[in-house]
Amino acid sequence: MINEDIQYEVQVKNAYKNYGEKNVFNGLNMKVTSGSIYGLLGPSGCGKSTLLQCILGKMTLDSGTIDLKTANSKNIGYMPQDLCLEELLTIYETFEYYGTLYRMKKKNIESKKYELQSFLQLPSMDCQIKNLSGGESRRVSLAISLLHDPKLIILDEPTVGIDPVLRQKIWIEFTKMVVQHQKTVIITTHYIEEASQANRVSLSINS
Q: How many CA atoms lie within 13 A of 13 on its CB side?
């Protein structure tokens, strides 16, 4: 019996995607329940990032459909695998820049900024992006994806280069977001122990 009360934040139906002769998706179906963590587990090059790009509308499928519950891009937070932060800005200026893009009130940017700095153990707000380590830069990128309090959070390998203790703290926070605030998180990872903490896991094996 179908439960008609289930709400899906993202639905992918019969998706096909090729790069030349390489098949990435072959009739892929995926349903992401609202208020859950959906893990995409698999090695590099198996199509996880391509799937996220298609969900975000940055790439198109060869055939098939993708339906998002949210129609407003401002309700989506996205952290790409490849960092695209402006190296000459400070962390403070980076928060201000993205907060302005999302039309956040200055007081909300300020409060969220220091909340995320504490949670993600970010360096001083006066540090320039170019002087950060790889792990610190990834944490700033993760913070930016959460800054505007989005309903749907899409994260591509967010914990690579982050120490295990902080990685576990981040996952605890993801769980709180889902349980307490009904956020939906789609996250790619190649860490099996991380994927096991998701509500549902999809295994990608294409190469």
A: 6
